């Protein structure tokens, strides 16, 4: 439904599960957009949206061309490359150079320089860069996706990892999208969200066994969780042909849950959207097993 006139928003990551949802939701609200990606042929066609690219985060001239005309940039975090801070910083500096006056950055719950989950360390670095970049910004820390355990399952629907009693407040892509949309539509010269860190979580913190049991009930598929030791987790992933970096990243994902670093439950979803956060049993989408990418 179109709702009046809006300033132009640039959205990155639009070929991914989260960025594509954000772009579709903003299109539904009548927001003019610049959809930015490395492969323009994969960028969706949406009403009121221009496809911009090819533009990689680390390519400053390409990013400046892609972001020209936007007032807000929604920066969906890139994949872990070993230079994610530099790539994100280049994208933000390109945005500032062409007149973008606000950046909404999608980070991770638990972002910290000493976070157990390796990707959350990278996210913290970008947060710190934004804090000193001299641009209006909001950090949107997304919880672990509700869909991730299902994507981690093997062909027999078994999810294995080194966690047992720790908890996570898994959150759906749709709830994250709704929060980001609400912040993006707060278009005044100032916003209560300027400089804020918003932690977007599901409605309750669950163990992996509880989460996977609910996924099984929701999908009608025989998902189950089996805890592993560190040694078992490493050996199995190595036999599957994962790189050392992938192994370390995934083990740290499980261990962040085990240590309670992603167990916080917030009111951000209901407060910003007017609707309660979605429990696992009501999630709208489930990926196939063995589709987890291992980076975020």
Protein traits:
296 residues; two-stranded parallel sheet; 10 helices
Report on this model:
The protein has 296 residues and is of the alpha/beta class. Helix content is 36%, strand content 14%. It contains 10 helices and 9 strands. The protein has helices spanning 17-28, 60-67, 84-97, 118-131, 148-152, 173-184, 208-219, 230-239, 244-258, 268-273; strands spanning 9-11, 33-36, 49-52, 72-76, 102-108, 136-142, 158-161, 197-200, 224-227. It has a 7-stranded parallel sheet, with helices on both faces. It has a two-stranded parallel sheet with strand order 7-9. Helix 3 (84-97) links the parallel strand 4 and strand 5 (102-108). The radius of gyration is 19 Å and the shape is globular. The two termini are 31 Å apart. The mean pLDDT is 95.
